[in-house]
Amino acid sequence: MNRLDRTLHILTYTLLGLPAVLFFWGWLKWYIALPASAALVTSLILALKRTSFISDKEFKARLFPKGRWTFIALSAFILLAWLLLSGISGTAYQNWDFHGRNAVMHDLIDFSWPVRYDMLSQGAPADGALVYYFAFFLPAALVGKVLGFPAAGWALCFYIALCLAAILLLLVRHTKCNPLLLTVLLALWSGLDIVGYLLFWGAPPSVTTHMEWWAGSGIFQYSSMTTQLFWVFNQSVPAWLATALMLNTENRGNLGLILALAIPAAPFPAVGLLPFIIYRCVFKDGRTLKTWLLHLKEALSLQSVLAALPILIVFGSFFTINNSLGSRSGILFSMDYFRWEYMLNYAVFLLLEFGLYALILWPQNRRNKEFYIIVAMLCILPFFVVGISSDLMMRASIPAIFILVSLTAVRLQAAFRRRRRWVAAGLVLLLLVGAVTPFTEIARSVVYTSQGYTVADEWKTFSDYQANLENAHAANFVCMEPEKSFFFKYLAK
């Protein structure tokens, strides 16, 4: 029997695929939505049929170490508390980014799909449309259309709870590590931001300080796991889920599908997932050109092609309408603000964010090609600037950081079991120092929630043209003259 593992994979593929299907039916002409949805659903069915499931006995052995329920029960409690403290449900403090997230949710609830704005009547030169990677909001927005905005927040929270449960179970399946250890690492893993903050700022942060920009505001940041959940859950959670699914996928024919499923909700993390997908599709377990070509043929399966074609055409044409990121994009060395002294920041940034972890993890991973992909990506990404806040670097790094967390768990558990005290002590020390960052993120939530600050909802909507002119960030969400684009001219309802 493999019912448990089969159910986990069905849940995972459904959680990743549902937002895309809802977008198809909400934004596309019906005669385009129908074949697009049919192709995606067919690809999911084919992927499940071609997945190797582990037995229920093996699944339970990994999930309940020594037959104990204690670990998984504590893990569930920690994940739930972590999720509630993020503010996603609206009952705890929401960080600044939620002003935009909540405005997107309001408009998805209050406007018909596709979301168009009548701005000509407000004195604008043209009408507008909501253009953003909001697919992850769509299941909750449907609930909100019936029950209202507060219910949408709880629906989103429930959807993410399902995602976090699937992520943990997939990690347990892949790493065979104690679920409680994996849960603690998910919540507390971070680079050594506190060390960088003290070095660069010369004073300790307050208990609620957001320390992630210690190496230079708007330039260098690799976000901790808690920061990702508390600030950019709409990108990080689907990226974690897709990466966890990839780690558990042996069939090369399913990997292209997984990458495609990540694009609607998390296009930047999908860019970061691409090198790992290419390696697993083509180069893993092969050393000759002939073998690589055979692997590539296997990877170009029916399920991957059926999913990739509609997703690339639809979301590629949709996302490229919004050109707001082009206002600050390029290679770091070519940016006007760049100075060579930033190379010192860069070197210290790499060392503290992941370098020390990599040094301890290397002996166990010296033959692991994906380990070198992680290191290469995290070294290269800071040189490419996209967006006001270096969005590409921060979000394309999410899959690499997630895999690094899983490698940390494997190394730490092995060190404890084999009594490698110095290795265990080194990793625990790094984790404790790094945990200062998630501690400040959680402390900010606790402190400000106790003071009555919860929902960050000042923007309300992107339909107000004058308000958008006064809000520099509105351009990230609104496209003017959408009807001139390929997407709205030929694909949209």
Give an overview of the whole structure.
Helix 1 packs antiparallel against helix 7 and helix 10 runs antiparallel to helix 11. Strands 1-2-5 form a three-stranded antiparallel β-sheet, with no helix packed on it. 65% of the residues lie in helices and 3% in strands. It has helices spanning 3-27, 30-49, 56-63, 70-85, 98-110, 138-147, 149-175, 179-188, 193-201, 225-247, 255-262, 267-283, 289-299, 302-319, 342-365, 369-380, 391-396, 398-417, 421-434, 436-450, 465-470, 486-491; strands at residues 116-117, 128-130, 329-331, 384-386, 478-480. It is globular and about 70 Å long. It is mainly alpha-helical and 493 residues long. The chain starts with a helix and ends with a helix. The chain has one domain. The chain crosses the membrane at residues 7-25, 31-48, 69-88, 154-174, 180-201, 253-279, 300-322, 342-362, 371-390, 396-415, 422-440. Keywords: Membrane, Transmembrane, Transmembrane helix.
Uncertain segments of ≥5 residues (pLDDT<50)? none
Overall geometric form: globular
Major sheet: 3 strands, antiparallel
**Number of structural units classed as domains:** 1
Question: Care to give the gist of this entry?
Answer:
The chain crosses the membrane at residues 7-25, 31-48, 69-88, 154-174, 180-201, 253-279, 300-322, 342-362, 371-390, 396-415, 422-440. The protein has 493 residues and is mainly alpha-helical.
